[in-house]
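cron nightly-structures :: item 1 of 1
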Amino acid sequence: MSKHARRTLPVASKLKLGIILSSLIMAAEVAGGLLANSLALLADAGHVFVDIIALSLSWYGIRQAERPASHTMTFGYHRIGVLIAIVNTLSIFGIAVFIFYEAVQRLQQTPEINSPLMLAVAAVGLAVNLFVASWLRREQKTNINVRSAFWHALGDALASIGVIVGAVIIMLTGLVAADPIISIVIGLIIVLAAWSIFRDGLRVLLEASPKQIDVRRLIKDIGQIPGVKGVHDIHVWSITPELHAMSCHILIDGPSASKAARIREQTEGLLRRYNIEHTTLQMEYEQCRANDIFCKMTAFRDEETKPTKD
C-alpha cells in the first residue's frame, strides 16, 4: 500500500486494523505466556485486552455517530458504547486481581521461565504496538476518540518494553522474580487504564458536567456578552465522553428579536470554544420562575388543575 493510500484511509478502517493486529498480539502473548510460563506476558496480554476495548469503543463510537436519531432514540445510539465500556472494565478489574494473586504466588515459589521465548513474543508485541500508534498518530491530533486509542497503544508499547527488560534480566542474572514483579507493575497499569474508562462512563450516565469544562467560568463568560443580564437554569452534560450538550435560560435586557438573535449567535460561538456543540438556549427579557443558576428538577404534577373540595 502506498504512503498516500495510508494517509487517506478512513479513521474507522485504521481503528479496525488496529483491533485486528492487537487481537493477534493478545493471542500470541497468551500462547507465549503459557508456553514460556511467563506471568509478565500473560499480564501484558491483559493490558492488550484493555487496548482492544479502547480501540473497539473508538471504532464503535465513530460508526454509531453516523446513525441518525429517531423518535424513539432522540439522542441517537451514542451511549451504547458507554454501557459496553462499563461492563468491560468490570471484567478487566477481574483480570488484574488474577494477575496480582498469581504474582504473589510466584514470588513465594518462583517457577522455571523460558526467557528467550518471553523476549521474542514481547519484541513482536512492541513492534506491532508501535506500528498501531504511528498508524493513528495523525488522526489523534484532531479526534479525541482516536487520541484515547493512540495513548492506549503507546501505553501497551511501554508494557511490552517492561516484559523485554524482565526477560533480559532473567537471561543475564537468572532472577526469575523479575517476572512477577513486572507483572504487578503491568497489572497496576491495567487498573489505571480501566478505572479511567469506568469513571468516564459513570460520569456520562450520571449526567455529570464534563470534567474539562469549568461551568462557573462558562457562566461568567456568557454573562460578559453585551446585552446579557443573567444566566440561570443551566445544565451541562455529556452524551458521550467526547460529545457535550448544554441548556440554559439567558436573561437579556430587552424584547428585541434582533438582539436576542445576536446574543444567541455570540453564545453559541462561545460554547464551541468549550467544545459544546449541542445547545438549547432560551432567551428571556423577564425573569422566569426557575431563576436559580442550577435549577432543581422535579417531576411534573398537575395539581393546579385538580378540583378542590369545599
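cron nightly-structures :: done
Confidence is low (pLDDT under 50) at residues 1-8.
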